[in-house]
Structure formats: C-alpha cells, structure tokens
UniProtKB/TrEMBL annotation:
It comes from the Eukaryota. Coiled coil: none annotated. One of its GO terms (biological process) is signal transduction. InterPro entries: TIR_dom, Toll_tir_struct_dom_sf. Residues 1-67 form the TIR domain. This is TIR domain-containing protein. It comes from Linum tenue.
C-alpha cells in the first residue's frame, strides 16, 4: 500500500479464503484477522502492526479477486 500511495503503483488484492467485507471496520477487534493480529502484536512493535491494520482497512476498499478454493 505504501508503493501505491507514494509511487502510484497499482494494487490488485487477492482475498484468499476471506471476504473483502470481513472485519473491515476494525480488523484487530474481532473475526478472521483478530487471532493472527494478536499473535503478531506479541512478536512485533505496535507501529508495525498498526501499519498492517491500516493496510487491511485501506485495501478493503479496492476491488479484487475472491478465491475460496484453488481446485
């Protein structure tokens, strides 16, 4: 998302086994992202995880591909 903001690069989201609508308002508070983000909060700095949360919120507003099964 930084490259999109700073350099105008295109972003093509691929939502693998999640919906772009899942927990968009606050991915860190509940749902499919909460457990993973909680684990990352224990291993990484607050600023780094906050950047990821911001990116999740930002990317949810971009059209992309939803992949539920690769077979």
């Amino acid at each position: 998302m930084n490259c999109r903001k700073e350099n105008g690069h295109r972003v093509f989201p691929v939502y693998y086994k999640v919906s772009p609508d899942d927990d968009v308002a606050d991915p860190a508070s509940s749902g499919v992202y909460k457990a993973d983000l909680d684990r990352h909060k224990r291993r990484h700095s607050y600023d780094r995880v906050a950047t990821w949360i911001h990116a999740l919120r930002s990317i949810s507003h971009i059209s992309g591909w939803v992949v539920t099964d690769h077979t």
